[in-house]
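Our consortium's second objective concerns turning raw sequence data into structural hypotheses that experimental partners can test. To show how far this objective has progressed, the report includes one record in full. It was chosen at random from the queue rather than selected for favorable results. The single chain below, 329 residues long, was entered without modification.
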Amino acid sequence: MRTTRRLLLGLAGAFAACTSLPAVAQTAAFPSKPIRLIVPHAPGGNSDTFGRILAQKLSERIGQQVVVENKPGAGGTVASGALAKGTAPDGYTLLVADNGTHAIAPTLYGSKLTYDVFKDFTPITLAAAFPTVILMHPSVPAANAKEFVALVKSQPGKLTYSSAGTGNGSHLTIELFRTAAGGLDMLHVPYKGGAPAVQALLAGEVQMTAVSVNTALPQVQAGKVRALGVASSKRSPALPDVPTFNESGIAFDGDSWLGIVGPPGMPADVAAKLNTEIAATLRQPDVTERLAKIGLEVVASTPAEFTAVLQRDVPKWGKAVKDSGAVAD
């Protein structure tokens, strides 16, 4: 009986070891099939262009197709919530996150938000950052940020600024500026999208707006608008002569970013491999150059560094949301 029992236990152990082999092999061979990269916004924007550049070059590097899927809705929160709550944590579905979906949304949507940015995602990498530029109409009689602040204070409630919508990053960047400059009294004019907000500035309907550097560049170069300052921790290589607001004595940081996240509970080795491969792809000179042309600076951080940025930015943008009084529909 003892001999038989030992034999059965040995066979059971061997069977368990054998059945575990495919899972180990699958992880070691990751990826063994195409990866879906969800862009939670419509085609044409920064996150979409970034996602397609990354997908193409990452596909070449890992030998598996990376397919971009656009799933817009509610400022990117629909796709983000779907990934967080209904996606297998196997590394084959990833999301292009941004400071809108993961730093602004928690306060803007409040209890309506279906996910927790810290608990419901696996951070892979903070992929790239891009500065926002605050622009003025050429008719505004101010040569720099300090003169603009003095002008607004001399005419409280009269100067206007456009945004891509209440609670949008463009709106909140100017909220950060207004607060840092001592509580400037200006009128917010929200539009349904970035393009009409810029058109309003070009037409002289408003005196100010905030846009990404790649959107600002052609308008500044054509002399149609003037750059008041870069809402970033450092100057933009695309606009090297435009000072940051910090340099002008108005201390705030409105850096925007794009990151890659997966669903919660991903195996650590799969997340680590994705971080390694994505970071290496982003650091390829041709990729860095292509992203620079659309105003994106490669970061390619570790997951821990990405988490640290979230811990910094959620309260920062949350305060801007509260100060502005913005509430999601």
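The partners drew two points from this record. The chain has eleven helices and eleven strands. The chain has two domains: 34-130+255-324, 132-231. Both points have been shared with the crystallography group to help prioritize constructs.
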